[in-house]
């Protein structure tokens, strides 16, 4: 189950006019190709004749050719030739493949995954200023992992896990030296400082006017020496973009759902500003970005994956995970995703969703709290939340499928619960108060149900 939005499904350069590219995204099989004008076409990947995989087909004129019997399908999805019936044969109207709205922007190919709308009524692709205004040289690669996209997104929305997850591989010394090492000791004190960086200072989350982009600003460093910290700004935009920026580096990830169990990670690294005066040739700076891409793919990401592969539930939600104040970005993501699922369901059905309709969340969303006795929850509400979590702990939801037609339909409605509020540092175990924005979400949700 996913909100109705534009989703990045492939890197632009991976789709050419030489051969179709068949992929699986959002629970369905699709094929991408370029017409004679270079425009990207996105269609269902199965030939309606006998179910052959069109990703193995060929380009022929302004059409894609089925590899099984040579049927041709034009950019509108209509079959224009069935060789076994001859050139002048009357072709049945049902011999067609679904066509999906597609756009090419920011170096990626985007597919609209939502309700049927005229092209003129489709919204713009959500892209924050970190993407729209970024003119730095970059490189982009992709890979997939058997992780639900919500967990993948969460792993990059915060950085206080890095001290524990990324400490052992020998290539992590690059991070130790250049991010945490001091010039006085030629970076050799990097690992010592890295292991001391356990606390988040000065954290703050802001939301753009559209309500779809969040910016999380914080310092990651030592508890006893806050001045020795690295400043991060993490920007998240729906449905699945996370941009990470520090003084030393900038990266963007798009986590495109393949299905309920798998995610395509599209990863981009931008040139180092410090290297621009030294590496004057653009190709050299791009090569450095390419190197960083592959270090992420083969070193850093596998370390994160070892953790994510064992997380439960596999889909992020409330009730079973206890957030702390520095998790506010995660909490905003989960709550806003639930709202978008509800709105998608309401648009499709034309009525407000019932209070007991699943929204794709697992139980309720709440904060870690004090307990009055060891092993006993402090309130009846917390007991109820835990019971709900156990009852829903095996829920699995992701990209919906099983639809026939020209565009996908997915949606949902939100559940009950409360969200982590703002925190400004250590709170001695107490849950931080809800932010005004979180209260507004709760009020909007309640009004929608009344």
Automatic annotation (TrEMBL):
Composition bias, Basic and acidic residues: 436-450
Compositional bias (Gly residues): 412-426
Any one Gene Ontology molecular-function term assigned to this protein's record: dioxygenase activity
Tagged with keyword RNA-binding: no
Biased composition (Low complexity): 392-411
Swiss-Prot/TrEMBL keywords: 2Fe-2S, Dioxygenase, Iron, Iron-sulfur, Metal-binding, Oxidoreductase
Top-level taxon of the source organism: Bacteria
SUPFAM superfamilies: Bet v1-like, ISP domain
Pfam families: Rieske
InterPro entries from the UniProt entry: Cholesterol_7-desaturase, Rieske_2Fe-2S, Rieske_2Fe-2S_sf
Region Disordered: start-end pairs: 369-450
Domain Rieske residues, every copy: 6-111
Entry-linked PANTHER family: BLR4922 PROTEIN (PTHR21266:SF59), IRON-SULFUR DOMAIN CONTAINING PROTEIN (PTHR21266)
UniProt name for this protein: Aromatic ring-hydroxylating dioxygenase subunit alpha
Species of provenance: Streptomyces tubbatahanensis
